[in-house]
Amino acid sequence: MSSRPQATPTTAPRTTTVRRVLAVIPARGGSKGVPAKNLAAVGGAPLVARAVRACLGARQVTDVVVSTDDAAIAAAARGAGAEAVLRPADIAGDTATSEAAVLHALDAHEALHGAAVDVVLLVQCTSPFLTREDIEGVCTAVLDEGADTAHTVAPFHGFLWREGDQQGEQAADGVNHDKAFRPRRQDRPQDFLETGAAYAMDAAGFRQAGHRFFGRTTLVRTDPARVLEIDDPHDLARARALAPLLDTATPTLPTREDIDAVVLDFDGTQTDDRVLIDSEGRELVAVHRGDGLGIAALRKAGLKLLILSTEQNAVVAARGHKLRIPVLHGIDRKDLALKQWCEEQSLAPERVLYVGNDVNDLPCFGLAGWPVAVADAHDTVRGAARAVTTIPGGEGAIREIATWILGPSLNTDHPIPSTLTK
């Protein structure tokens, strides 16, 4: 018989207990398939920041923690609005399980806040197109529908095969079907593919079981078109190409309150990426007068400005001199140069807007808080950008960006010539 005292009836008003839902996002710094994968930009935001934002948008989630061993990831997590928990080395290696990271983060969070968690989520930031609705679905299954665990799945209709050894010869056999009989799709039982994106677990049950599947498991369907896990560079390239199609929300454009500096690539952003060469080898490029007006207005507004170019070129230096902007050119690692410049200027990288057009700008996209692509940029670059201009490079794209930041009325007393020669 229980020794717990019996409850005494009372007329006091009933209070509603807030159920605590903790989302844990594991994000190690080490990645062999894609170096610095969790900081790679897709749709203008690092993967870890995308996951944080999706979790913060879910109505049931009360707290979001990123479990990491990397200072840069921790900084990105905090910048996106999450807590960061630094995990010990023994659960940060290649063989460490996600469950170990979640349990450590759960313990650390409860110790810090002094409150027990009711439901814990495992959210993978390598699934870039995870939605708020996906997270709310797995939460609801555990909070309100009696499930012990829940995870996202996508309907799957494919025939699975496995290679095996039959009678000493390599042969293949069906896994989810009899290879001697091919039923119609509508006559087959529905299979589901685990997306690897979001899992919800009753916190007490998770502690006891030590893994993410225990008790009654509920499947939460998601859109198959959004199912993508980033494991190698090809996956990352696909995610960046799909981002403009799948990130359907109206993009937020930067304002003066969002940024402290504007850093500009040259070829393809301030020019149309073409070069005219005369018989003596001299180069001629065309720039847009409106870009000069926009840059002058940005400078007048107090923003720090920089031209950052890979190619060592007198044309770039001449353009910077005319615009009164410092120039760093002949740079092999633009991201390292940008990072050093930010440190020298006491700038927070997340408040820097960087404009680029080609794949050599992607490392800077991962560093700057506002990566912007011009309209005719490489598909991968547009997919990694946080915003994309409607105007191509060399045709007034920089003026368009200046209008985003400062508004439609831009004035300058210094018109800029439209061509420069080397």
What labels describe this entry?
single chain; 422 residues; alpha/beta; seven-stranded mixed beta sheet; 12 helices; 20 strands; 23% strand; globular
Structure description:
By secondary structure, the protein is an alpha/beta fold. It is built from twelve helices and 20 strands. The protein has a seven-stranded mixed β-sheet with strand order 5-4-1-6-10-7-11, with helices on both faces. The chain has a six-stranded parallel β-sheet with strand order 16-15-12-17-18-19, sandwiched between helices. A three-stranded antiparallel β-sheet has the order 13-14-20, covered by helices on one side. Helix 7 runs parallel beside helix 12. It starts with 20 loop residues before the first strand and ends with a strand.
Q: How are the elements arranged and paired?
A:
Elements: E1 21-26, E2 41-42, E3 45-46, H1 47-57, E4 63-68, H2 71-80, E5 83-86, H3 98-113, E6 119-123, H4 132-143, E7 149-156, E8 161-166, E9 169-174, E10 191-202, H5 203-209, E11 217-221, H6 233-246, E12 261-264, E13 276-277, E14 283-286, H7 289-300, E15 304-309, H8 314-323, E16 327-329, H9 334-344, E17 352-356, H10 362-367, E18 370-373, H11 379-384, E19 387-388, H12 397-406, E20 419-421
